[in-house]
Amino acid sequence: MAKINLLPWRQEYRAQKQKEFQQVALLVVMAAGVFAFLWMKTVDGQVASQNERNQLLQTEIAALDKQVREIKDLKKRRQQLIDRMRVIQELQGNRPLAVRYFDEMVRATPEGLWLTDLKRKGNAMEIAGVAESNNRVSSFMRNLDQSDWYESPNLTGVTAKPEFGEQASAFQLTVNVSGRKKEEQEDAGNDLAKKGP
Q: Are 187 and 173 in contact (CB under 8 A)?
């Protein structure tokens, strides 16, 4: 039987397989590198896109914050205007009351009685004057008590003033201003009557 040497063929086959393995390994490494590169690019793109969104959100949030500050300023100005309007309306509403108070004071003052001083502190009015007699002061106080604009007259002092007559006297009294409350109660009653049941 002849001797056949298979060694060179095996070495060539092994070399060919090793070369194929190296080529496949090289292809795998290249494919892995390309995949890693593409994955990094994708991640970088997503990060950049998210950063752009975050920047857009921050810009929008800053714009909304500015609008919120403007709205707060507008609300503050609106409240200031409402307060001013309320003060103006109160002044406008109170303007004719002084005339009514003086008119009612004149109506309540009997003949033979002179007023020398009027002072108002809140809802209380201090009145000083001279009367021909104490009966005139009593009549004046009754008239004030029956008035729609005054209530609770209180005599605080009486002194004789003979230079104005035998029974003349100077007096001081206080009276509460109540007409506005009565007027408001009447207005509220009228409003209820208009609305009906």
A: no
The whole-angstrom separation of Cα 24 and Cα 114 is: 127
Q: What is the mean pLDDT of the chain?
A: 83
Question: What is the distance in angstroms between the CA of the first residue and the CA of the last residue of the chain?
Answer: 135
Low-confidence ranges of the chain (pLDDT < 50): 181-182, 185, 188, 192-193, 196-197
Angle between helices 7-108 and 134-146 (to 10 degrees): 140
Convert the pLDDT of each residue in 37-87 to its tens digit.
999 999 999 999 999 999 999 999 999 999 999 999 999 999 999 999 988
Q: Are 150 and 108 in contact (CB under 8 A)?
A: yes
Q: What angle do CA 189, 190, 196 make, to 5 degrees?
A: 90
The correct answer on CATH 3.40.50.1240 for the domain covering 90-195 is no
Domain boundaries, the chain: 90-195
Q: Considering all CA atoms of the chain, what is the largest pairwise distance in Å, rounded to the nearest integer?
A: 180
